[in-house]
Amino acid sequence: MSDAPGSGSNPLLDGLRIEPTPDPTTLVIFGASGDLTRRKLLPALYQLSRGQRLPARFSVIGVARSEMNDDEFRRQFHDSLKEFAGVEKADEVSGTLVRGLSYLFGEMDDPALYARLARTLQESHAPDGVLFYLAIPPTVYGKVVEQLGAAGLTRPSTPTGWRRVIVEKPFGTDLDSARALNAVLHQHLEESQIFRIDHYLGKETVQNLLVFRFANGMFEPVWNRRYIDHVQITAAETVGVERRAAYYEQAGALRDMVQNHLMQLLSLIAMEPPITFSAENVRDRKLDALLSIQPLLEDGAKTNVIRAQYSPGWVNGSEVPGYREEQGVSATSVTETYVALRAQLDSWRWAGVPFYIRTGKRLAKRTTEIAIQFRRPPLHIFKRVSPTPIASNLLVVNVQPDEGISVRFEAKLPGSRMQLAPVMMNFRYGSAFGSAVPEAYETLLLDAMLGDPTLFARHDFVEASWALITPVHEAWRTSGPAAIPMYEAGEWSPREADAMMAADGRRWRTL
Amino acid sequence: MSTQLPHQLLPGAKEVPFAEIEGTLSRLVQDGRRRSRAPARSLTATVVVVGEPARLVSAADALAQLGEAGGVRTILISQGDQPSPTALVTEHSIAIAGLAPRYIDNAVASLRLSSLPALVWWRGGSIEALDDVAGLADRLVLDTESPDETWARAQTFLEETAVTDLRWARLTRWRALLAHLFDLPRVREAVASFNRLSIDAADVPAARLFAGWLQTSLRWPSSNQISIRRVSADGKSPLERVQLEGDRLTITLHVPSTRTCLHASVGGEDGMARVVPLGDGALTALIGEELGIRTRDLAFERALGAARELSVS
Ligand SMILES: NC(=O)c1ccc[n+]([C@@H]2O[C@H](COP(=O)([O-])OP(=O)(O)OC[C@H]3O[C@@H](n4cnc5c(N)ncnc54)[C@H](OP(=O)(O)O)[C@@H]3O)[C@@H](O)[C@H]2O)c1
Q1: Hey, is A371 helix, strand or coil?
Q2: Which residues contact A465 (CB under 8 A, 6 or more apart)?
Q3: Helix, coil or strand: residue B41
Q4: Are A395 and A372 in contact (CB under 8 A)?
Q5: In whole angstroms, what is the distance from residue A28 CA to residue A31 CA?
Q6: Pocket test for ligand 1, best of A33, A36, A243 (most atoms within 8 A of CB)
Q7: Which ligand 1 atom lies nearest to the CA of residue A199?
C-alpha cells in the first residue's frame, strides 16, 4: 500500500521558510474608489504578493458608488502603485494581481448591489474565504453589514469557507454610537468574524512590546509601582488637518488619537502577562488594564484632561496658519487639536503611578513614543563628589519614526573624578536586523486573512475606551467656546499641560 | 593554497598582527563613532566565512552591505599553514589570510561576539576544519561548488548544529510556489498520483536538493522517476524548469524569458497560472535570510539525506 499523503493537509508546507499563507481568499473592498484603498490597501496587497504572502487563489472585488468598469479599476490599481508604492511600470507581480481585480458599483443600501456581489462571487468560482473591508465613511458601516447579512453573505456556503469583516476607524463617535454599531455587527456576525482595525497595532515596535515585556526575564520584575515613577505616552505630529478638516472638526484629537491608538499603547504597557500568546488571552489582559483606569473626570476635567488648539506659528521652518484658518474649519471652532491627560490605574501593579498621555497636531517634531520613567535610587551616595542630581533611568519605546527601544542609565564620566552623566543605549529596528519593516496595513490585512484577531480591537475594549472618553467630551460640550486654550504651532505644549505636570512635580519629556 | 588576501577584500582596512585584532577593532569603533557621532549600534550576530581568497571577496562584499544595515561582525578566513597570521581589520570586519585549519576554531572562539549567535558560512577549504567550526556555530551554512564531501560530513553533526546549504535558500521561492499550488483543490486531489519529476537546472546539486525535498515530502517510493538535466543559464536561478507529472495532472514551473519571475501552470490551464517574483538571489539577501533563522530545519535535513542518494546521469 502506498503511504503517499492524502488529500487532507498540504504535504509541502512543512518547514517552508515562507511564513504561513492564508487559505484561498476573495477580498471585497467597500470604498474601492477612495483614498485609503489607493494609499494603503492596494500597495499593501502588492507588497504581500511580492513577498509571496498571498494565497494561490486570490482575487479582489472593489465596490463603491462611482461608476467604473473593471479596466478602470485596474488602471487605478496601477496608478496607486505608482504613486504610493514606487512601482513605475507594471511588473509580473502587479500583472498577476491585476488579473484578479474586478469592480462593482452601486448604492450601499441597495439590495441589488449585494445580489450582484453574491452572483459575482458564485460565478467567478471565487474562493469561499471572503474578507470584506469597510473602507467607507463610518456612517455607512452599519448599512453595509446589514445588507451583507440580508443577502446571506455573512455566512460561508461551504464547510471550509469563512467570512470576515474588517472595520476601519473611527469605530463610533461616543459610547452610545459604538454600542449601537457593535449591536448591528453582532446581529449579523460573530465577534470572531469582526476585525476592528487600529493600524498602530500593526506597527513592529508595538508588537515588540509584548516580546520585550514577556520574553525577557529582566524587565517584568521591575514593571510596577515599586520601581516605575510614571509613564509618558506621546504622539506628536507636525502636520495640521490637511484634507481631513470635515472629519477632524467632528472628531478632535481625543477621539482621533486617544480613544483608539493611545489607549491601545497604554493597555500594552499596563497589562498583566497573558497565560498564552493567544488572541483572547492577550485581549482579555488588555481589557483588564483599560478597565482599571479611573474615570478621567473624577478630580474635575480641568486637571486630568487638558485640551488646546493650535494658533498660527512656525513648524519645520515654515509659517503655518492656525487651526481656525485652515480650509474647511469653522472660524469659531473649539475642536481640540491637542490633548494631554493623566490616567490613574486602579490596580495592584499600578496604583499611584500616573500614565500621562499627550497628542497634538502642529507640534515641534513628529514622534510617537512611550517613555517609562523609573524611580530614583533611594539614596544619592555620590552627592558630595558629583553634586548634579542623577537622572532617573528611562526606557523609551520609539513607535515612529525610528522604531526601536532605548534605555537611559547613569555612567561615570571618564577621568580621575567621580562625575556622573546619563547615557543612552539604543536598539533600532532599522539598523539591528537590516531587513525592511513591513507596513502596518500589510501585517493587518494578512492577519485578517489568516483569521488571527490578536492585533485587532475587540468590542469590549472599544466600548470601555469610549466609556472613559465620552464623559470628557460631554463636559467640554457644555463648557462653552471660550474654554479652549491655545498653543502656538511649532511649540511643544500649551501652558495648561505643563501646569498639569508641574502640579505633580513632574515635567514633560523634551523630545 | 594562496595565503595572500586580495587587496579589495576590506577596503581601507588596517593590517595588524593577530594579537592586536581585538584592540584595533575597539579603537576603530570608537573613532568611527566619534567621526559620525552616530549612537552605538545594537549588535546581533557574528558571521564567519571560511573559503578560498577569491570566494571571500564576494562574501565580504555581501556582508559589507549587510553590515551597513544590520549589526553584524564579520570574520573572513582563508586557509593556509600559519598559526598566527596578520589580519586586516575594519570597524566591523576582520580578514585573516592563510590560517592553519587546526587554529581556525581558536580564532573564531576568540573573535566572535560573546553571547550572540555565530553563523559559519562555509565556502570551501579543508574539510578537517569543518567539524571544529561547526562545533562553535549556532548555524552552519554550506556553500561549496561541489557539495558532496561537505554534505556527507555535515550529515554527521546535524544533531549538534543547525545546518543548511545556501542552495536551499535559493530554492525557497520554487518550493513556496509549488506548495501554494498544492492548496488548489485539483492539485490536492491528484497528490497521490504524481510519480514523475523532471528538472532542468543550471545548478545540479540544487536540483538534487529540490528533488530530495519533493521525494521525502510526498513520501515517494524509489520506483518513481526523477530525472535531472544540466542546462546552461544566466545564474539568476538555480533551476530553470520543474515538471511534476502524474496520470491525472501535470504541474510546470519555469523561469520565463523576462528572467525576473517564476511562472507556474497547472494542467496547462490559464486560469490556474501563477506568477511570482524570482526573489532577490543576491548573496546579501540570501545570507541575510539565513541570519534570521535560528532553528534546525528538518525539511532540509530530510532533503539532504535524499539528495545524497540521487545520482545524476
Ligand atoms: N485615508 C486614510 O488614510 C485613512 C486612515 C485611517 C482611517 N481611514 C478610514 O477609512 C475609511 C475610508 O477613508 P478614505 O480616506 O478612503 O475616504 P474617502 O476617500 O472619502 O473614500 C471613501 C470611499 O467610500 C465611498 N463613499 C463615500 N461616501 C459614501 C457614502 N455616503 N455611501 C457609500 N459610499 C461612500 C467613496 O466612493 P464613492 O463616492 O465612489 O462611493 C470611497 O470609495 C473611513 O472610515 C476613514 O475614517 C482612512
Answers
A1: strand
A2: A259, A260, A263, A290
A3: coil
A4: yes
A5: 9
A6: A36
A7: 6
Residue A25 burial class via C-beta count within 10 angstroms: exposed 0-12, middle 13-18, buried 19 and up? buried
Read off the amino acid at residue A82: K
Rg (CA), chain B: 22
What residue ranges do the domains of chain B occupy?
Answer: 7-137, 170-277
Closest-approach residue (CA) in chain B for A96: B275
Interface mutation target, options A17, A123, A160, chain B, most CBs of B under 10 Å? A17
Angle at A357 between CA A311 and CA A303, to 5 degrees: 75
Measured from the Cα of A32, ligand 1's closest atom is 43
Question: pTM to 2 decimals?
Answer: 0.84
C-beta atoms surrounding A282 within 10 Å: 23
Residue A505: exposure state from Cβ atoms within 10 A (0-12, 13-18, ≥19): exposed
Q: How far apart are CA A342 and CA A55, in angstroms?
A: 46
Mind listing the pLDDT tens digit for each residue in A5-53? 544 578 888 777 667 788 889 999 999 999 999 999 999 999 999 888 8
Q: Yes or no: say if A366 and A357 are a contact pair by the CB < 8 Å rule.
A: no
Strand B72-82 relative to strand B45-50, pairing: parallel
Residue extents of the structural domains in chain A: 12-168, 202-503
Q: What is the ipTM, given to two decimal places?
A: 0.81
* pLDDT per position as a tens digit, B92-148: 889 998 999 888 888 888 888 887 889 999 999 888 889 888 888 889 999 999 999
Just give the CATH number of A12-168.
3.40.50.720
Pocket test for ligand 1, best of A29, A30, A35, A201 (most atoms within 8 A of CB): A35
CATH T-level topology, domain A202-503:
Dihydrodipicolinate Reductase; domain 2 (3.30.360)
Q: Considering only the beta carbons, identify the residue of A2, A15, A50 that sits closest to B192.
A: A2
Supply B227's cell numbers. 530525472
Instruction: List the alpha helices (DSSP H) in chain B.
Output: 21-36, 53-69, 101-111, 127-136, 148-154, 166-170, 172-181, 185-190, 204-217, 283-291, 298-309
Residues in Cβ contact with A33 at an 8 Å cutoff, skipping those fewer than 6 apart: A62, A64, A65, A66, A68, A76
Tell me A253's DSSP state.
H
Average pLDDT, integer, range A394-421: 87
Three-state secondary-structure class, residue A49: helix
Interface of A with B (CB under 8 A): 2-7, 10-18, 21, 23-24, 49-50, 52, 55-57, 91-93, 95-96, 424-428, 430-435
Q: How confident is the model at residue B68 (pLDDT cuts 50, 70, 90)?
A: low
Report the separation in Å between the CA atom of A448 and the middle of ligand 1, taken as the mean of its atom positions: 20
Please give the positions of A annotated as active site.
261
In the sheet that B118-122 helps form, which strands lie side by side, from edge to edge? Answer: B14-16, B87-89, B93-99, B72-82, B45-50, B118-122, B139-142, B162-165
Which DSSP symbol is given to A433?
A: B
Omega within 30 of 0 (cis) for the link into B53: no
